[in-house]
From TrEMBL:
Protein name as annotated: HTH luxR-type domain-containing protein
Organism: Rubritalea halochordaticola
Organism domain of life: Bacteria
Domain HTH luxR-type: 212-276
Assigned keywords, A-Z: DNA-binding, Transcription, Transcription regulation
Length: 276
């Protein structure tokens, strides 16, 4: 690791706050059913503000029955159940591959310091700056730096988490390359501020995936497609035609969605959504 100077950095200034407020304002243009698109905007804008090479959002859930066998262990029983990648950064598949690699390494070598810090402060909105946890010399000896960061050309990482409920968290990760400066305290505070101000978006993202307290199983991607159309008020015939599937197949998906949200009908589903 090439030594780089660490500075606390200037405090958040009025211009910084204005950028975050403008981001919040622009996010209000998206409807609840456009939460994924809203998060893409959040990632893109924050990636620019933080001078990050890539970033992604992670849906972290605990105690849920997964919709598929694919999962990535994160920390303290939480698993990554879905991702959204920053525009212009890594693809969804690249993010998935990196998280799978991280999961396999953590099983072999133990929990990394950032994951430990995530657990220690769980239940609150937090942003974790690697340099707050250990100095460069200590970090250079960590397996996660040697076997994961260096392999993936990651020079530094900034992580922020928002607790949606007792079983789910909304997490964003931003990376800088090895030839970039390290993140500073100002970057951490900017990201924490931005995350704390979009609580509704975090809830909508998890609700779209079935990741809320009253659900037991997460939705499949196809079920999410059906869900969005149910909530717009389309009939089952219209939904089936729009998605190019048979009426019986569509009805099977609808019943599965009702069961996963523990509601009996469309009205019950819409009432649940309205509370968020």
């Amino acid at each position: 690791m090439n030594p780089k100077p660490h500075h606390s950095g200037p405090c958040i200034c009025a211009d910084d706050v204005e950028q975050i407020v403008q981001l919040w304002h622009d996010l209000h243009k998206f409807t609840a059913l456009q939460a994924d698109e809203a998060m893409e905007m959040f990632l893109g804008r924050m990636g620019e503000i933080l001078h990050s090479c890539c970033g992604y959002w992670v849906a972290a859930a605990s105690g849920k029955e997964l919709a598929s066998s694919m999962k990535t262990d994160l920390y303290d029983g939480y698993e990554a159940v879905d991702f959204i990648a920053m525009p212009g950064g890594l693809s969804h598949q690249e993010v998935d591959d990196r998280q799978a690699m991280y999961s396999q390494l953590s099983i072999k070598h133990g929990v990394c310091p950032i994951a430990v810090a995530s657990v220690a402060s769980r239940g609150e909105t937090r942003a974790i700056l690697r340099h707050d946890l250990m100095n460069d010399e200590e970090w250079e000896r960590e397996w996660v730096y040697q076997k994961f960061y260096q392999v993936n050309d990651i020079g530094d990482r900034l992580v922020a988490l928002y607790p949606v409920d007792s079983q789910s968290e909304s997490c964003v990760v931003f990376d800088r390359k090895v030839d970039q400066d390290y993140y500073e305290a100002r970057d951490r505070e900017l990201l924490k501020l931005a995350m704390a101000g979009v609580g509704q978006l975090h809830r909508e993202l998890m609700l779209l995936r079935g990741g809320v307290d009253n659900t037991s199983r997460l939705l499949t991607p196809r079920e999410r497609d059906v869900l969005k159309l149910i909530l717009t008020g389309d009939t089952e015939k219209e939904i089936a035609e729009h998605l190019g599937m048979g009426r019986s197949t569509l009805h099977h998906h609808v019943i599965a969605i009702y069961r996963k949200y523990n509601v009996r009908n469309r009205a019950g589903l819409q009432a649940l959504w309205g509370r968020y």
